[in-house]
Amino acid sequence: MKRTAILLIAASLILTAMSCKTSKVKYPETRKVDVVDTYFGTKVADPYRWLEDDKSPEVAEWVKQQNEVTFTFLNSIPYRNKIKERLTAIWNYTSMGAPFKGGNRYFFFKKEGLQNQSVLYMLENLEAEPKVILDPNTFSTDGTVALSNVSPSRDGKYFAYSINDGGSDWQKIKVIELPSGKELPDEIKWVKFSSIAWQGNGFYYSRYDEPKEGSELSNINKNHKVYFHVVGTPVENDKLIFSNSQYPLRNYSAQTTNDEKYLIIYESESTYGNSIYVKNLKDPKANFSKITTGFEFEYQVLDHINDNLIVLTNYKAPKYKLVKINVNSMDIGNWRDILPERKDVLSNCTLVGGKIIANYMVDAKSQAEVYNLEGTKLTDIELPTLGTISGISGEMNDSIAFYSFSSFTVPPIVVKYNINSNTSSEFFRPNIDFNFDDFETKQVLYTSKDGTLIPMFIVHKKGIKLDGNNPTLLYGYGGFNISLLPYFSTARLFWLEQGGIFAMANLRGGGEYGENWYRSGTKLNKQNVFDDFIAAAEYLIKERYTSPKKLAIQGGSNGGLLIGAVANQRPDLFKVAIPQVGVMDMLRYHNFTIGWAWANDYGTSNDSIQFLNLYSYSPLHNIKPRTNYPAILVTTADHDDRVVPAHSFKYIATMQGKNPNPKNPALIRIQTRAGHGAGTPTSIIIEEYTDIYAFIMYNMGLNY
After folding, report:
1. d(Cα 601, Cα 580) in Å, to the nearest integer?
2. Which residue among 179, 499, 517, 621 is least enclosed by CB atoms within 10 Å?
3. Has 162 been annotated as catalytic?
């Protein structure tokens, strides 16, 4: 009894100390300017417009001051270093990606322990010793130069790859010779949103014109073009293959069929929907033929079989189907279904060994099936548990395929699959310092505001008590037709190990149930996404998994917008909010880099009705003064040219300006030499998650 009393007193003193410390956070002064925009008669002030200038010395000084306040706060958390030590220990394992073929060789990525970047290896055959072909850890001393795209030539002579520097979307394409790995002088700059599609001794790629100096990370991206580069020749001689000056805000990417007979060009004007063109490369007189029109539907060409393009599409099939289109008779009336639409979403298909591996999404989890080329089902691929298949690789004339399988508590396993015998064997399994058997995953359905049933995954220790006192982290995205399936996260293991619950809601706006599910979370329906997420939090509280004092929320990019919006709408529901690289200024997002391509999801403030909708939920524009918001830690990066950091800068400046003496802190963590997330080195990821978990636990009054 006496011991319990002492512990309660100690806990009270800790919480009091935390409260005192939080109240002492003093934010830097952020200058305001008199900028007012008028949208259809509505005046909207933008006092922090100057923070959009990423090259301004004043902005650099503001970033420095904000980081000083943030890191002073984070570094004073007594158990921060212990969190970092444990995260580092968990991360110290070997991981491997599914092998893929190029010519007669296999390639795979592998990361040993705490390496910042995965290393690319080559195998002459599956029994051979692996040879290092590219080690991105040698590209820079801090690990911030990363591989972003790789493509072996089909004859096995060359290997093209692209790198990005400091997290930017800008890439350089380079080439090495095989099997020696000798680096060739070829270097192509100002590449973005590009494939690498081989034809003979050259490849097709996409790039923009060189931007003006100083505008590389913020100016709008226009006039995307497809070129052809012959290995060993000057880039200045690259041939322009496809462009459209009439529509400067469209993107183009190239693909060649496996026999290099056909060139496919994909044209898009947003992140959803495309049109496709095809050209016969064997016929020197052939021109491009446009197969589809408009951007209402999506098309992905797998390959061709006897001049029939095998295409995955949602044309007149909201949950997708597989069709064949004869290049000599491409009228839509002559398209033929191979795998017709069914109630489950057809995520992707792969042609292997003269058969089709179809990966379906069944209630937001993978189900893999094998069909013949006429569409007759042959068998199922047995999976170990509820989870996700990714990275299926194989060839039409080869019976062996590889894929990765993972789940919340199953690290990525590489599986070798023989399609002829329908047998699977484990090719690689990581060994991680974590007891996965202590945890369980369940899937529940809850009701959103309008009565729609929403699925949610919940992961926690076995035998947990539903007493409303469990620290819980709720994650969501809800946009761009992106589906959240059970996936493995090394960082999340720490949270689970500490007794935390992880919940992931499959919100509308994603692709889990096809196009209709996606559309019901876009443009004028965007509030559905926020309602779905709020309802997920209410479900977790009602079912006594947690309480508002123990509930943290997290999301990145479009998910950062989600977190900013719901924190504004229901600040009483959450204790901590972590919006990462979020789209926070919904009135001006389309003015930066590739932001114009998101209009299909959001609409833009150029339209009067869309303006009113965007203005109603824009995180930046709906912050109220003197409001008890959750503790907020915004994370962004100085090289993020996808969602420019000005979104986060203006959001946190507004939050601090309207609530200068908050009960809970509102801080921003600005990472240098990093971008939107892809290619971030392990060391920086560990540092960021150390701070995120320290911030969450500290503001919940938890100890390590």
Report:
1. 19
2. 499
3. no
Task: Give the DSSP letter string of 511-570.
Answer: STT-HHHHHTTSGGGHHHHHHHHHHHHHHHHHTTS--GGGEEEEEETHHHHHHHHHHHH-
CB 639 within 8 A of CB 166: yes
133 membership: H or E segment, kind and range: strand 131-134
Q: How does residue 142 score in pLDDT terms, banded at 50, 70 and 90?
A: confident
Evaluate whether 599 touches 584 at the Cβ level (below 8 Å). no
Domain range for 665 is 20-89+441-700
pLDDT at 218 over 90: no
CATH at residue 474: 3.40.50.1820
Phi-psi region of 665 (alpha: psi -120 to 50; beta: other; left: phi over 0): beta
pLDDT digits (tens, 9 = 90+) for 389-411: 999 999 999 999 999 999 999 99
Quick one: 398 and 487 in the same domain? no
d(CA 505, CA 475): 7
Dist CA 160 CA 177 (whole Å)? 9
- Give Rg (Cα) of the chain: 26
Tokens 């339209």: give the residue.
Answer: 607
- The sign of the torsion formed by the CA atoms of 695, 697, 702, 703 equals negative
Tokens at 587, concatenated:
């009135």
- What span, in angstroms and rounded, lies between the C-alpha atoms of 101 and 103? 6
Q: What is the pLDDT of residue 43?
A: 98
Which pair of tokens denotes residue 306?
């006897």
Predicted confidence at residue 8, as pLDDT, reads: 37
Summarised one tens digit per residue, pLDDT across range 638-664 is 766 678 899 999 999 999 999 998 899
Q: What percent of the chain has pLDDT over 70?
A: 95
Residue 579 lies in a domain: yes
* Edge-to-edge order in the sheet of strand 388-393: 388-393, 400-407, 410-418, 423-428
Confidence bin at 212 (pLDDT 50/70/90): confident
Q: What burial letters (b/e) apply to 2-16, b meaning 16+ CB within 10 Å?
A: eeeeeeeeeeeeeee
Instruction: Tell whether 220 is covered by a domain.
Output: no
Task: Say which residues have a Cβ less than 8 Å from residue 346's Cβ, sequence separation at least 6.
Answer: 312, 319, 320, 321, 322, 339, 358, 359, 360, 361
To the nearest whole percent, how much of the chain has pLDDT over 90? 87
Residues 374 and 452 in one domain: no
Catalytic residue among 557, 605, 618, 648: 557
Q: Given 590, 639, 647, 676, which residue is catalytic?
A: 676
pLDDT at 11 over 60: no
Backbone torsion region of residue 86, taken as left when φ is above 0, otherwise alpha when ψ lies between -120 and 50, otherwise beta: alpha
**426 and 459 fall within a common domain:** no
Considering the domain architecture, whether residues 549 and 597 belong to the same structural domain is answered as: yes
Task: Return the number of other C-beta atoms located less than 10 Å from residue 464's C-beta.
Answer: 14
Residue bearing tokens 């059970």: 486
55: left (phi > 0), else alpha (psi -120 to 50), else beta?
alpha
The neighbour count for residue 435, using CB atoms within 10 Å, is 11
φ/ψ of 569, rounded to 5, equals -80, -35
Annotation says 557 is catalytic: yes
Residue 137 lies in a domain: no
Look at residue 379 and tell me if it is in a domain.
yes
Which of 1-15, 297-311, 350-364, 526-540 is least confident?
1-15
For 283-304, what is the mean pLDDT? 95
Among candidate residues 403, 430, 457, the one where a domain is terminated = 430
Taking only the tens place, the pLDDT of each residue in 597-639 is 999 999 999 999 999 999 999 999 999 999 999 999 999 987 6
